[in-house]
């Protein structure tokens, strides 16, 4: 089987229901989601002895494909895959991980264990994906749950990175020039 089709040699690609230039905002958004998915796969490989979290991340990889699929339509009459239940599942995990990780008062530097550092990379790429989907939303009708999902997903990666460090006994490094931005007893919003 050949994986090359040569149909994109003139700068266009196919969406479901039509063709667009490869710099179309939808292609940029779902391409960045694909990039995020690759980094999530890398993070999974770095999670020794954390099978529960690795399984969650594998599920997130499937959901990221769903996000890309929902953005890859040239027409607006199709069923969406990303839904509110997926967002709520992320919220449940975020709440559990934030309770398990030590409280913070200041911004923290991305890092710690290799897995936590990879999850912080995922967090920043998820934020970029979210920004790109906002741009898509300005030009096209979208499944708004994709935007909600990506917003929650970046928070999920923040919480997951912190809990990975906590479980490995690695302290988060506070940004020393930060004022106290989180109140003790309150959840941090990454």
UniProtKB/TrEMBL annotation:
Keywords: ATP-binding, Cobalamin biosynthesis, Nucleotide-binding, Transferase. Pathway: Cofactor biosynthesis; adenosylcobalamin biosynthesis; adenosylcobalamin from cob(II)yrinate a,c-diamide: step 2/7. InterPro entries: CblAdoTrfase-like (IPR016030), CblAdoTrfase-like_sf (IPR036451), PduO-typ (IPR029499). The keyword Endoplasmic reticulum does not apply. Its EC number is 2.5.1.17. Residues 3-164 form the Cobalamin adenosyltransferase-like domain. The keyword Nucleotide-binding applies. Pfam families: Cob_adeno_trans (PF01923). GO terms for biological process: cobalamin biosynthetic process. It catalyses: 2 cob(II)alamin + reduced [electron-transfer flavoprotein] + 2 ATP = 2 adenosylcob(III)alamin + 2 triphosphate + oxidized [electron-transfer flavoprotein] + 3 H(+); 2 cob(II)yrinate a,c diamide + reduced [electron-transfer flavoprotein] + 2 ATP = 2 adenosylcob(III)yrinate a,c-diamide + 2 triphosphate + oxidized [electron-transfer flavoprotein] + 3 H(+). SUPFAM superfamilies: Cobalamin adenosyltransferase-like. GO terms for molecular function: ATP binding; corrinoid adenosyltransferase activity. Homotrimer. Belongs to the Cob(I)alamin adenosyltransferase family. This is Corrinoid adenosyltransferase. It comes from Priestia koreensis.
């Amino acid at each position: 089987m050949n994986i090359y089709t040569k149909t994109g040699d003139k700068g266009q690609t196919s969406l479901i229901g039509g063709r667009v230039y490869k710099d179309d905002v939808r292609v940029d958004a779902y391409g960045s989601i694909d990039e995020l998915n690759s980094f999530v796969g890398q993070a999974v490989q770095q999670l020794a002895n954390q099978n529960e979290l690795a399984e969650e991340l594998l599920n997130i990889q499937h959901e990221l494909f769903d996000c890309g699929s929902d953005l890859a339509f040239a027409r607006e009459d199709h069923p969406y895959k990303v839904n509110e239940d997926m967002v709520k599942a992320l919220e449940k995990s975020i709440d559990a991980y934030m309770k398990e990780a030590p409280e913070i008062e200041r911004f923290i530097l991305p890092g710690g264990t290799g897995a936590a550092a990879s999850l912080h990379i995922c967090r920043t790429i998820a934020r970029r994906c979210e920004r790109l989907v906002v741009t898509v939303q300005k030009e096209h009708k979208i499944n708004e749950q994709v935007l909600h999902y990506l917003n929650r997903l970046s928070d999920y990666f923040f919480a997951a990175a912190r809990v990975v460090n906590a479980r490995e006994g690695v302290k988060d490094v506070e940004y020393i020039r930060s004022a106290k931005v989180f109140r003790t007893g309150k959840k941090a919003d990454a």
